[in-house]
Amino acid sequence: MGKRRGKKNGPAAGSRSTPQPATGSAEQGTEGGGTGPAASGAGITWQEARGTGDAVAVNGGTAVSGIYNAVHLPAGALREPAEVDAPAGIDNLPYRPEVFVGRETELDRLDAALRTPGAALVQAVHGLGGIGKSALAAHWAATRPHGRAPVRWITAYSPVGIRQSLASLAVALQPVLDTVLTQKGLAEYALKWLATHPGWLLVLDNVDDPAHIADLIRKFPDGRFLITSRRANVWPDAVPLVRLDTLGPEESLDLLTRKVTQTGPRNLDGAAALCEELGHLPLAVEQAGAYLARNPLLTPRDYLGLLAADPAEVYGCADLAAVPAVSRVWRLTLDRLHTLHPATTDILRALAWYAPEHIPAALAGADVDPVARATALGLLHEYGMITLDPATDTVAVHRVVQALARTPDGADPHRTPELIDQAHRQATGNLGLVFPDDHDDPANWPAWRALLPHFDALIGRRSADADTAETVDVINQTALFLRSQGLVVDALPRLRRALASSERILGEDHPDTLGVRNNLAMAYESAGDLRRAVPLMERTFKDAARVMGKKHPATLTARNNLAGAYRSTGDLRRAIPLMEQALEDQLRIHGEDDPDTSMFRNNLAYVYESIGDLSRAVPLLEQTLRDRARVLGEDHPDTLTSRNNLAYIYRSAGDTARAIPLFEQTLKDRVRVLGEDHPDVFMSRSDLATAYQEAGDLRRAIPLFERTLEDRTRVLGADHPHTLASRNNLANACQTAGELHRALPLHEQALADAERVLGKDHPHTLTCRHNLANACLATGDLRRALALMDQTVKDRVRVLGKKHPDTLTSRSCLAGACREVGDVRRALFLLTQTVKDRVQVSGTNHPHTVIARNDLALAYLAVGDLHRAVPLHERALADAERVLGKDHPHTLTSRNNLATAYQAAGDPQRAVRLLEQAARDLTRVVGKDHPHVVRCRNNLASAYQTAGDLRQAIPLFEQTLAQSRKLLGETHPTTAKVRENLDSAIVEKGT
After folding, report:
1. Is residue 895 part of a domain?
2. Which of 271, 553, 792, 798 is the most exposed place for a label (fewest CB within 10 A)?
3. Does a structural domain hold residue 712?
4. How confident is the model at residue 89 (pLDDT cuts 50, 70, 90)?
5. In degrees rounded to 5, what are phi and psi of residue 214?
6. Do both 321 and 280 map to the same domain?
7. Can you give the residue ranges of the NB-ARC domain (predicted)?
8. C-beta separation of 158 from 456 below 8 A
9. Number of helices followed by number of strands (H, E) in the chain
């Protein structure tokens, strides 16, 4: 019987053909100390380069959040949606009409369709503006029993309004969530709650486009939905419609009579004629009744005379057939209100530019005396022009009234073009005055969320041509908040509009224009669109230096941001001098203790880490930590971030013995200072999990990755970039643990989510595709792996460039796939080119270059070209010892690989000596319970077998098999390989 030789594990720990970190959506090591300095006294905020997530896989980093907001929550304060019962008072009907008449037929139809809780149905009510659709829905919902099932009113005119209303539901269920979850996180929490609780009713008010609510209805086939809409012919056949027309003459008269006589008997002469004149439109009749109720000496016939004296109608609002009737009532009411309190008309015109519901009362006049504002709002409420909700301190204005108030009419003294323009400016200014200061602080998130629908309404109701400098500032601030929430797709179009308007209004060289251009470039970088980001940053830096001077804080910020963008593109040759100059200037101008000095020093350290120069990176981060602890205190979030960053650098250097305790202490302190659900806590937990993974402690790493994914999904939302990175990290850890049945679906979901949320060309999406290809390779699905690798290389070349580090990594992995399918010639060509490009891009001494040379040596070894393989392995080991140090994990792996080459070359004695040394060193550096030690011991046993020393080979195989079973499990590929090798040795011994 022929002899069977033991199979070696080869480069299990050393090749770059491994799952990649979630670049793009993960932190890149750079940080920002808040929102950056203002470019000038005008006040446009410049956003500084900062990370957006946690360090992942191998080369992540951490970033200061700029948040000093401790959120201390009692144990059990945050519960799963399924565990939360609807609290008392959760219904949120915005108003119940004081007087409601008629509509018996429509109410009966709604009763038949929707009255039974638990019965699934969708019902739509449609009709023109002012006809009473919302009043009908509110009256029906308030007067019918729903058991204990909640009734929630959803403002459904736009996706933003729907998301805002769902977020409000989550806060009503658990108020503590308001300052913990992002808006997307709150909305997803509400959806999970709805999915686990039957019987509820959602009133989807004022739906403009059925597509806006299609997903919501599709998610809940057993739900009850009552829809109101002006549109009739856009609904699928499955949605039954209730058409609402004007009131009948008797109902109209009843409504007017009840409104007028609320305070006592009145002379109703001319009431029927007045209703006829108003077309029996409920809104017009109600407002006329409110006017008459407030002026007891007037009769309906007197009011008719007033109408006859002002026959003007409104044009330009073709979709609002109600406007002509309402405009006549409006004119009389506004005349009276202006006489009583001149500020009422100004306030009403300003309110017309916001969303119609849930308008914070402060927006009625942020710079007006609160008592005067309250008096004016009270009068508007009395006359039926607005609805006040004292419980929430908010205002509602009917859409028809808003449309009228925004429409210029030279014949109406309350709606001249000048007054309309003035109202728009006032509405814009009011928003700017009430915006919270810090969009990163979770304590401000509820206020930001409350203002978003009104911002969207304000900028959506006028074209960009009408923007002012104040509009630009409001758009800029809102876009920065959206980006901080992971909503960069929403932020980009707003910033593009802000930049175009600022260039037109202020000029291309105005400091505020430069600030907006900087922020747009930062948003492009967050979106992974580096082709747009870098030229914008280059222009901004050049213009800032020319306009404001090289020493201006905004110029320093622009230089820092440009350097960070170069780093993102892999252009380290340009990034390093810029960051070095930025730090030098910052120190000279602002000194050691300025917060931005620590930030610049941190960012320079990470650029040094990117080129493998840890000897310069580590001292910089150690100094940053000392400075922040001295200036800010040990428990300041920025100090904790510096400690986390230093731990990351230790991990990059392969020093997990120092990294892990530092990560553990930082996580403990962040939980104590910031609370369990702070984003920085998630970041620390993910970083610690990665350190455990690199130390081979997968039993602790995987549960931490699982918890981080669960917490980020709950708090930030399933589509937040940090959550996407967490799913990628968990998939990589499962793959490392040999749990391919878990890893592959996770990789597939990570890619699908990234394509849907970020787009197919985002760097994180390309990373997910790269990692899925690796998983397919690990499962033996070579055809799929090769196709995915090929596509990833092409896409990375197109998006990032031919020599971007990520492109070169994908090319190395493609070479590995080619080698597996037998295309050795292509594999060698790819790896040879990769080594040349790594040398050109990163230099001979960069770790990536060392690893690329190791990969090429392994390829030559795989094809039996020992003449080339052995010298390359010898050089790879020498380079690793020189660049990384003798105890770095990759150096130890290179030693293992060289021994494998010696063994293949027929020199088992040299192989044994090297492997014995490698096993001792690995055990000393990473501990005996590390997968790398298992693989090295397996290779050593194989070398003993090749040398004919079965007396040492078999016991070592047996020990290694037991160790692999303990660490990796019975089904892990490494365990299977060791078992096969042991069987081979036993068979050989028996021959």
Report:
1. no
2. 798
3. no
4. confident
5. -60, -45
6. yes
7. 104-262
8. yes
9. 40, 8
- Which of 360, 388, 409 is the last residue in one of the domains? 409
Q: Which two tokens stand for residue 923?
A: 């055990």
What's the burial of 41, exposed, middle or buried (CB within 10 Å: 0-12/13-18/19+)?
A: exposed
Number of domains in the chain: 3
Tell me the C-alpha to C-alpha distance, in Å, between residue 589 and each of 395, 561, 592, 631. Answer: 49, 18, 10, 18
Angular region, 142: left φ>0, alpha ψ -120 to 50, beta rest: alpha
CATH number assigned to the domain comprising residue 135: 3.40.50.300
d(CA 550, CA 555): 6
Residue 209 lies inside a defined structural domain of this protein? yes
Tell me, what's the pLDDT at 844?
82
Dihedral over Cα of 22, 28, 31, 37: its sign: negative
Q: Is residue 691 domain-resident?
A: yes
Do 366 and 444 sit in the same domain of this protein? no
Q: Is 125 helix (H, G, I), strand (E, B) or coil?
A: strand
Query: 312-321, 631-640, 977-986: which has the minimum mean pLDDT?
Result: 312-321
- Specify whether 254 is located in the same domain as 238: no
Token code pair at residue 484: 């901080």
What is the Rg, in whole angstroms, of the alpha carbon atoms belonging to the chain? 34
Residue 14 pLDDT greater than 50, yes or no: no
Q: In what order do the strands lie in the sheet with 394-396?
A: 359-360, 394-396, 387-389
- The pTM of this model reads 0.66
Amino acid, single-letter form, for residue 574? R
Q: How far apart are the C-alpha atoms of 603 and 582, rounded to whole Å?
A: 10
Please name which of 170, 213, 200 lies closest in space to residue 714, comparing C-alpha atoms.
170
Alpha carbon 520 to its chain centroid, in Å, reads 17
Give the model's pLDDT for residue 47: 59
Assess whether 97 and 156 both reside in one domain. yes
What pLDDT score does 664 carry?
Answer: 96
384 and 530 assigned to the same domain: no
What is the extent of the structural domain holding 181?
A: 82-243
For the chain, percent of residues with pLDDT exceeding 70: 87
Structure tokens at 464: 């960009």
> Which strands make up the sheet holding 224-229, listed edge to edge?
151-155, 201-205, 224-229, 121-126, 241-243
Q: Angle CA(652)–CA(656)–CA(659) in degrees, nearest 5?
A: 80
Indicate whether 395 and 446 sit together in one domain. no
CA separation (Å) from 538 to 50, 55, 147, 688, 779?
18, 27, 62, 36, 45
Q: What is the pLDDT of residue 50?
A: 41
Identify whether residues 469 and 579 lie together within a single domain. yes
Q: Which residue, 695, 713, 734, sits at the end of a domain?
A: 695
Measure Cα distances from 160 to 126, 482, 879 in Å.
Answer: 22, 12, 55
On whether the CB atoms of residues 783 and 777 are closer than 8 A, the answer is no
DSSP, res 415:
S
Burial class of residue 218, CB neighbours in 10 A (0-12, 13-18, 19+) = exposed
Alpha-helical regions (H) of 506-613: 511-526, 530-548, 553-569, 572-590, 595-610
CA distance 931 to 935: 6
pLDDT band at 520 (very low <50, low <70, confident <90, very high): very high
Question: Which pLDDT score is estimated for 317?
Answer: 32
Residue 49, pLDDT > 60, answer no
- Say which residue, 15 or 309, is predicted with more confidence: 309
Q: What is the mean pLDDT of the chain?
A: 81
Tokens 């990032």 map to which residue?
800
Please give the structure tokens belonging to residue 367: 């710079």
Q: Give first-to-last CA distance, the chain, whole Å.
A: 7
- CA dihedral (213, 217, 220, 224) positive or negative: positive
Residue 467's CATH number: 1.25.40.10
Highest mean pLDDT out of 98-112, 603-617, 931-945: 931-945
Lowest-pLDDT choice from 314-318, 564-568, 840-844: 314-318
Asked if residue 31 lies in contact with residue 63, where contact means CB atoms within 8 angstroms, the answer is yes
The band of 751, judged by pLDDT with boundaries at 50, 70 and 90, is: very high
The residue with greater pLDDT, 221 or 25, is 221
